[in-house]
Amino acid sequence: MVSDRDSATACLIIIGNEILSGRTQDTNLAHLSGVLNELGIRMIEARVIPDVDETIVDTVNHCRQRFDYVFTTGGIGPTHDDITVDSIAKAFGVAVYEHPEVAALIRKREAPPAVMASRLRMARIPVGATLIDNPTGGPPGFQLGNVFVMAGVPMVMQAMASTFDQVRLPGGRPVRSRTVGAFLGESQVATQLGEIQEAYPDIDLGSYPFYRPNGYGTNLVMRGTDEAALEEMVERITQMIQDQGAEAFPGGAPAAPENED
């Protein structure tokens, strides 16, 4: 991927055996990437790892050295396999304690002693961490250094992400995108795309082919922080498509060529 010095970098670590088994499909990556884009933070990598302590520790320690921000989802619930809190603490070499404010929040909802004991696992955070608000009313996530630990349940993760701003997550200029589609094969545009990419090294240019019963082609997607340069690239892409006798479709190719019934 082309690096963009105007943006901070991020990595998402998706934690959970249920994701790797295919039992649960992750939707958090797309949502969080969109939130971060608006803050000028570019999601560079996403990793899916199991609920294994050593794997979590090693992955977090590697990623927090490489990226400006690291986000994790999953593993902060009340059951025995929710080990993310302890693994994050181990990665930073700190202890875990029961946060009094979170414990008080959990105790507001009465439950039998055994159930309450399980729930209070969600009040445990590493020493030195700060809380990430949870607007749904449930237990919060937490931040330790440049690592942000969030729920895996999409509704809860999205609520936590809604609290992020540029005060907590300083970034750069928002990442913007443009799309131009055409009913041309990738091999027909490959050489010209390479030349255009070289002319705009700070913009990511990707080709995403589609295949339909009534035709095939590609959508060309440009992503960057310099909107003027994006518009220039759009013009060059559009001209390239037209030079080959095809129609350029801003925003992406329609479901079928317009000249078909």
Would you kindly provide a written description of the structure presented here, covering whatever features stand out?
It is a single chain. By secondary structure, this protein is an alpha/beta fold. It folds into two domains: 8-161, Molybdenum Cofactor Biosythetic Enzyme, Chain A; 176-250, Alpha-Beta Plaits. The protein is built from nine helices and twelve strands. A six-stranded mixed β-sheet has the order 2-1-3-8-7-6, sandwiched between helices. The protein has a four-stranded antiparallel β-sheet with strand order 10-11-9-12, covered by helices on one side. The longest helix has 17 residues, at 227-243. The two termini are 40 Å apart. The mean pLDDT is 93.
Secondary-structure map:
Layout lengths: L7 E8 L1 H4 L7 H11 L2 E9 L3 H14 L2 E5 L10 H9 L3 E3 L1 H8 L5 H7 L4 E3 L3 E3 L8 E4 L2 E4 L3 H8 L14 E7 L3 H14 L4 E9 L2 E10 L2 H17 L5 E2 L11
Helix pairs in contact: 2-7, 3-4, 8-9
Return the CATH class of the largest domain: Alpha Beta
Please tally the helical runs, counting DSSP H or I stretches of 4 or more residues.
9
Report the β-strand fraction as a percent range: 25-35%
Give the CATH topology of the largest domain.
Molybdenum Cofactor Biosythetic Enzyme, Chain A
Unreliable sequence segments:
none
With strands numbered from the N-terminus, the spatial order across the biggest sheet is 2-1-3-8-7-6
What would you say the CATH architecture of the largest domain is? 3-Layer(aba) Sandwich
CATH superfamily of the largest domain: MoaB/Mog-like domain
Count of beta strands:
12
Structural class estimated from helices and strands: alpha/beta
Shape descriptor: elongated
SSE order: EHHEHEHEHHEEEEHEHEEHE
How confident is the prediction overall: mean pLDDT?
93
In this structure, how is the largest beta sheet organized? Answer: 6 strands, mixed
Helical fraction equals 25-40%
Computed over alpha carbons, the radius of gyration is 22 Å
Overall tally of domains:
2
Question: How many angstroms does the end-to-end distance come to?
Answer: 40 Å
